[in-house]
Prior knowledge:
By secondary structure, the chain is an alpha/beta fold. Helix content is 38%, strand content 21%. The protein has 15 helices and 23 strands. It has helices spanning 16-30, 72-89, 94-110, 112-123, 127-151, 186-197, 211-223, 238-247, 260-270, 301-313, 333-345, 365-381, 411-414, 430-437, 453-462; strands at 35-37, 39-41, 44-46, 51-56, 59-68, 163-171, 175-178, 202-204, 231-233, 253-257, 282-286, 291-295, 323-329, 383-386, 390-391, 397-398, 401-404, 421-427, 442-443, 445-449, 467-470, 487-488, 506-514. The chain has a 7-stranded mixed sheet with strand order 14-17-18-13-12-20-21, sandwiched between helices. Helix 10 packs across helix 11 (333-345). The two termini are 35 Å apart. The model has no long low-confidence stretch (mean pLDDT 98). The protein binds nicotinamide-adenine-dinucleotide (NAD). Residues 178-183, 187, 205, 207-208, 238, 242-243, 246, 257-259, 262, 265-266, 286-289, 320, 416, 418, 444, 484, 486, 490-491 line the site of nicotinamide-adenine-dinucleotide.
Amino acid sequence: MVQPFTHEPFTNFKKEENRKELEGALRSVRTELGKDYPLVINGEKVYTEDKLVSINSANKEEVVGNVSKATKDHVEQAFQAAVEAYETWRKVPVEDRAHVLFRAAAIVRRRKHEFSAWLIQDAGKPWDQADGDIAEGIDFLEYYGRQMLELDQGKHVEDRMTENNKYFYKAMGPGVVIPPWNFAFAIVCGTVAAPIVAGNPVLLKPSENTPVIAYKLVEVLEEAGLPKGVLNFVPGDPKEIGDYLVDHKDTHFINFTGSRATGVRIFERAAKIQEGQQHLKRVVAEMGGKDTIIVDETADLDLAAESIVHSAFGFSGQKCSACSRAIIHEDVYDEVIRKSVEIAKTLTVGNPSEENVYMASVINQAQFDKIKNYIEIGKEEGELVFGGETDDSKGFFIYPTIFKDLNPKARIMQEEIFGPVVAFAKAKDFDELLVIANNTEYGLTGAVISTNRNHLERAREDFHVGNLYFNRGCTAAIVGYQPFGGFKMSGTDSKAGGPDYLQHFLEAKIVSEQF
Ligand code: NAD
């Protein structure tokens, strides 16, 4: 009997025993740094000469792991394995498929701190953020397992006197999973687990920034009993194998999460029918955000400042849901900025391996350079009121940065920065707050801080984002509670962790029998 879903609790690191466990896990993971990792094709481990070198972003000298790099030939072999595995995996009873996910969740739960330690090293996550990422991965496994058991019942359709009708869901065929690095465990876990539990073999190409933790997930699923060929691990250079994975005639779906530029490219390419292809590809593309918190004149201003600062600077703003625009009613504008600066001053920046670090390094040199450039743009477009410092001598550190007095059309109000930079702008009334909130091409998350019921109800209808929050920050969606996905150029609104998600990887079939 499967218990109802509840989300995985977060670890309380104020408790000494929890701190000690994570410290122990970090020590043990450090003894494993710099190892080589293989591709996994049809259950076989394949080591290549050419490697992706994953480094610790807080300490550039430290190599986390050397991960084998797939060529097109490897990808071709992985497709063959997936096509073959499809014929058996799709017929494995749903209950057995779901139990692979439940066993995987149990394995990760048991080794939670070890996985957090890998994330701290591989993705530069501070302790609480790493713990949240692992908890979310567990949630995806538990939630999608349960969802698939439910969908296996099919849906009710009517029968007639001499006719029996059955409406049910079937797997689609092999597909490709292309995740980002910023939720290097949770998103990989969710985007892989969903199509697999639906009966589809997968080729996983992890982000080149965080391939080690992705390999750890592959190991877990294997230990949980996933048959060979169902999950093929093909890390590599996206310029070399990205198009090949997307274009392949045997790709039935592409489950992508990442930037707008990559998502749009995939979406366009997937529409082209290749020689020998007998189906239309489905594309799930969850892309960037330019997320806004609006604050009206009735708001609790302490709550407003807390919500803005933590949504903007948690994990150094490297969340698609991070607040990068704060639009404030003119009556409370100065006060909200003052309070936000006061809170930002208390945030600690440092090596995520250490306890009590609020913000760590950003993921790599390219992101560091990009964010630094946006800080320079911000200085021209608005007034720097806090932060702006950067330091890449040891790791890629960017300090929390606040700008004010931005024109809503300014570049730092429109373009995704993906770093710890938040821009404030002023509005004269609630109508203008909403107009500015909606004036980007993105539509992922947003929040309204207000005690005015009419304003909240207007926002419910007219604030065009996939995930809207009232009187809290705009990050930290929980699987099964706040299914996640955005509108407009934020993507296909797949609502990861929600009741409709698995249907992206299923085909509905009706069998009608006369008797
Ligand atoms: P990215 O687009 O650079 O890379 C994402 C993935 O695409 C990686 O695995 C990468 O190797 C792969 N890729 C790159 N070029 C490719 C190509 N031509 N063909 C196939 N695959 C290719 O994004 P990123 O820097 O890894 O992640 C950050 C972005 O992800 C941000 O824009 C963020 O907002 C977004 N994001 C969105 C969500 C969401 O749910 N909407 C969640 C997390 C992150």
